[in-house]
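Intended use. Records such as the ABC transporter ATP-binding protein entry shown here are meant for training and evaluating sequence-to-structure methods. They are not intended to support clinical decisions.
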Amino acid sequence: MATNIIELNHVKKNFGRTQALKDVTFNLPAGQVLGFLGPNGAGKSTTIRILLGMLKRDGGDATVFGEDPWHNDLAIHPRISYVPGDVYLWPNLSGGEIIDLLLRLNGQDHNTKTDALMQEFEFDPKKKARTYSKGNRQKVALIAALSQDAELYIFDEPTSGLDPLNELTFQQEVLKLKKAGKTVLLSSHILSEVEKMCDAIVIIREGKIIEQGNLAQLQHLSRLRIQVQTDKPLSALQKQPGVYDWHESDAHTQADFAVDHDALAAVLAALTPLGVVNLQSTPPTLEDLFLHYYSDQGVSHHAAQ
C-alpha cells in the first residue's frame, strides 16, 4: 500500500465568525496526482495554506510527510515545490533573477531544466518584474517550481492568467511529473485541466468535502448523453424513469437526452422494439460530475442517498 504524503482528518478553520473549513478529510498517496476541485471561495487555498504551515487549523489533524505542518514547517518545506494562485514578485529584479533566487531559497540551482522551461513557456527572463502581466508572473513561479526536484508539488490555481498554449505546456509538465512517479496536489476550478492530469479528485463545497475518488468511481453518479434514431416514434421513452433533458425531432424518431447510469439498461430495453437505426452514447465528463455536485438539486439528491 502506498504511503500517504498528505493526510487531513476533519480539519476545521475559522476566520472570526466565518467557518472557512467545516470538515476537510482526504489523503494523497505517494506518486498520485490529486485534483482538488471547487469554485473560488470553497476553501481550497485555505486548506493548502494549512498544509504549508501558513495557517493554524482550529480543529482536526493534518500531516505532510507524517509531520505536523504548523509545528514542523521548516522540515517540510525543502521537500515541497509550491505555486500560489496569486504571485507577487520583487519589482526591481528581472524574471530570471527571481527564478534563480527562488531556486536558491529552496537549496537548488538554475539548471538545464530551467532553461528548457523558459523556452517552453516562451518566457523572457531579462525584463523587470514590474513590467510583467499576471500571466508572466505566473510563469516565473511555475518555471521555478518545475525546475526543482521535489517530493511533493502543490499547485494552487496555477494557470490563472496563462494563455491556452501555456496552459497546455503546464499540463504536459504535470504529466511528466506523473510519469516520473512524483506526488502532485492540483487545486483548480478548471475542470478540463483536472480531467486530463489527475488520478483522483476531491470536491469541496463551502468548506466541506462532499465527494472524493477516482474519476471512474465517480462517473456513475453522472448521466450519459444519448443520441438515437429509430424506425418507430419514441416519444413515450421520455416518461421512462431516469431520462432527463429530452429533445426530439418533429418526426418523433430522433431524440437527444440524458440518462442515469442505473437506468441505462431499462432505456436500451425500451428502445429495442422501436427498431434502433443509429445510437450514440457520450460518456460523462468531469464537468458533468462537478455540476451535479454544485447544483442544489444534485447536492440534496446525493445527501438523500
